[in-house]
From TrEMBL:
This is Apple domain-containing protein. It comes from Planoprotostelium fungivorum. Signal peptide: none annotated. Keywords: Copper, Disulfide bond, Glycoprotein, Metal-binding, Monooxygenase, Oxidoreductase, Secreted, Signal. Residues 92-128, 184-206 are annotated as: Disordered. GO terms for molecular function: metal ion binding; monooxygenase activity. Residues 177-266 form the Apple domain. The lineage of its organism: Eukaryota, Amoebozoa, Evosea, Variosea, Cavosteliida. InterPro entries: LPMO_AA14, Pan_app. SUPFAM superfamilies: Hairpin loop containing domain-like. One of its GO terms (cellular component) is extracellular region. Its cofactor is Cu(2+).
Length: 266
């Protein structure tokens, strides 16, 4: 519920079930292809198939773009693809993510809602420690990167099962047996060049002066420059075009997803 009810909150109650009398033709839940849900009562398609829990306004990291008091809290209902009754599309063999009807395309082949997916393309270098890890397919490798806040890009061995997570965005180049991509909102090795100061990946919570719409992060930076009393800003990288203008220079918080921010040099 919204803050008018006391605070911004959402709930999910997990259950541990002991399933008995299982039918011989029963299929397991398709965990490896689970995706974050997305709001779909606004003309956007719902995410089909199994879904991971929604993480919202968490210090440790988030997978939902609805942040702060500008939008309603995400809810486990039909607005986010959770229909009434049994969720029959969550099982292996019945998961519509596997036939390309998922939001952004087939999950096995990657989800373009999360970032770019480039076939026959490698991104060499800037590997995170202990790489490679194992992934069942392109979508699984991409999801492992998305669910790691330090991962900005990834590469998958499409002739095998190796998956490389990367803490930067190395230059894309041709590569046989490779599919790779970047994660939206985590670009530029945490320090992009802006016209009026560095643009960094992360939020700057607090000190809000105003909330406006901006075409992109550079436009948000420009609006802060033109606004009296604005010393820093934050921009929503997940497609909602929100730009927070801020007084002073609150500290950078890299644990918040869907954000780029910076301090304006006036």
């Amino acid at each position: 519920h919204k803050s008018v009810g006391g605070s911004d909150q959402m709930y999910m109650t997990p259950f541990v079930c002991n399933v008995t009398n299982v039918r011989g033709d029963a299929k397991p839940i398709d965990y490896s292809n689970a995706q974050p849900p997305r709001r779909c009562d606004n003309g956007q398609p719902c995410v089909k198939g199994p879904k991971v829990p929604m993480y919202w306004m968490q210090k440790e990291g988030n997978n939902m773009p609805e942040i702060g008091n500008t939008q309603s809290a995400p809810i486990y209902n039909s607005n986010y693809g959770f229909q009434e009754g049994a969720q029959n599309d969550i099982f292996v063999g019945g998961n519509s993510n596997n036939n390309g009807t998922n939001n952004g395309g087939s999950n096995n082949g990657g989800n373009t809602q999360l970032g770019s997916v480039d076939q026959n393309t490698d991104r060499s270098g800037q590997d995170m420690p202990n790489m490679p890890i194992q992934a069942s397919n392109v979508g699984d490798c991409q999801s492992k990167c998305y669910n790691n806040q330090d991962c900005q890009s990834w590469a998958f061995d499409s002739c095998g099962t190796n998956c490389w997570l990367k803490n930067g965005q190395p230059t894309a180049g041709g590569g046989g047996c490779r599919t790779s991509g970047t994660i939206n909102g985590r670009g530029g090795n945490n320090n992009n060049s802006g016209s009026f100061g560095p643009i960094q990946t992360g939020d700057r919570p607090g000190n809000d002066l105003d909330l406006v719409k901006a075409a992109n992060v550079q436009d948000c930076q420009q609006k802060c420059l033109a606004r009296q009393g604005c010393g820093s800003y934050a921009w929503d990288t997940c497609g909602n075009s929100w730009c927070w203008l801020k007084t002073g220079q609150p500290g950078l918080d890299t644990s918040v997803g869907c954000r780029q921010s910076g301090v304006v040099n006036k």
